[in-house]
Structure prediction request, 226 residues.
Amino acid sequence: DAGVIQSPRHEVTEMGQEVTLRCKPISGHNSLFWYRQTMMRGLELLIYFNNNVPIDDSGMPEDRFSAKMPNASFSTLKIQPSEPRDSAVYFCASSPREPGELFFGEGSRLTVL
Amino acid sequence: AQSVTQLGSHVSVSEGALVLLRCNYSSSVPPYLFWYVQYPNQGLQLLLKYTTGATLVKGINGFEAEFKKSETSFHLTKPSAHMSDAAEYFCAVRGQGAQKLVFGQGTRLTINP
Prediction:
């Protein structure tokens, strides 16, 4: 079975540009999570979906960040406009029902210049 | 509410020595407990999990962890460290009925030759 698939793996962009990160969860999983990882702040949960519905977006840093899950097999995380402090590795993870362990993608490394 | 504390952000052991990574949790409901490993430039990979039943859980790569309810601990051990074990390790908790995992801050394991 294919795991969680994220694209792009690496993105370098300039401040002010729009960035879209994409995720395809594992088929049959009902929850999807977006995390951000930095040296300073570690692993942070940004938002998660249950059955394609956003449940908790309290970790989204500010209005520049938005996430969507139009169907069970696709999600996006968008940053507009991007800033240098958004540079991080962004992980997508999906999970089945109980006990709900997470299956992580390889991550998207974002560098904003 | 759930929380996780990993004691020691960095642990260094010699090759062949015992590995012990400490994790304490708090949970208002019976917990599910997880250990993840992250190798450089990769996503997090599930090492092992405790859900119900036997409190000693065996995982991949020779690791195991014991759920001790009285001590609210879930320490990760491996009898003999290998160079390939060098990575970052994350402990996580999820309360039964809760939807998201709560991660610890991670412990970076270094193996000395």
